[in-house]
Hints:
It is a single chain. The protein is of the alpha+beta class. Helices cover 48% and strands 11% of the residues. The strands form 5 sheets. It has a 4-stranded antiparallel sheet with strand order 7-6-5-12, covered by helices on one side. It has 14 helices and 12 strands. The protein has 2 domains: 15-150, no CATH class; 178-359, no CATH class.
Amino acid sequence: MPNLDLPAFVPDRPAATVxxxxxxxxxxxxxxxxxxxxxxxxxxxxxxxxxLGHASMELYVVEGLGCSRNRYWQFKxxxxxxxxxxVLKAAVADGQVGWTKAQxxxxxxxxxxxxxxxxxxxxxxxxxxxxAVRTALGRRPAGVRRAEAAGQLALxxxxxxxxxxxxxxxxxxxxxxxxxADAVQLARFEALLERAxxxxxxxxxxxxxxxxxxxxxxxxxAADAAxxxxxxxxxxxxxxxxxxxxxxxxxTVTQRGERPLAPAQVAAIECDARVKRxxxxxxxVIPPSVRTAVLARDRHRCTTPGCGATHFLEVHHVVARSRxxxxxxxxLVTLCERCHxxxxxxxxxxxxxxxxxxxxxx
Length: 362
């Protein structure tokens, strides 16, 4: 990517000089945006935001870089599009296609047509390209063009950035869940998702699966609240975790079989779980009254700066119990599941305890 020098500002220069300087400054701005998007994509692709002290890419951009959430979503949208359009990404990296043209091409290009659109972007001007894109988009209803570009609405669980070693083997924590959507369903999903973000109903760093899980949780909670037999203090659902008492290896029980957990996941669960041992009654790691008080104190929100999630909340020990930490409220803090696991990944986790089940409704 070629470097461009930013012209120094000097007042009262001739019109031609001012025009040339302004044009040069605009070219530098474009190249800076292109460069920033490529570096943004690198951080996201490799999960480097975790190495930099943040549980999600959004928290890194907003809290770490000091950018607005609007800028984060602009960068993320184009980054995701570039990942799906490798020819366009290469053209941006080589400096053949600028920021403005790349945004236009990403609106309309597919895997089958991106080479032709990139060629048009390289050979033509911005206005000519914009007219061509508008013409192409105008031939199809909005919902249909989105469906053709996306193919399917993928709701996959992203592979964990930090793999855990259990019984000498690297644990594969990923699983795929896919839902196919027709044009109308996809348009509805995108409209509702955008509305939820504008209303700030979604926590920082939430992905599509988080949205679906939060929606299902809300449906179940609403049904429980309407039921005369529901217990207000009972969890909406539970996730069962089986742990070997000898080696400490743990796995969660799913309809697809047992899925192994990384040590950091086990450590996070141990902070806030109900423990069941053979021949003994269930016991909460944190007394229920203390847990309720901590959640109320933290206003039922994740306390990580910039996050504020209100779903899938857990209570974390600031000083781990294995290091002498207590279950008193002053040693406890509310975190969402994502931020909680990240803290244990960053700190290396703690020694496993006997954990058989954990309430997942927060």
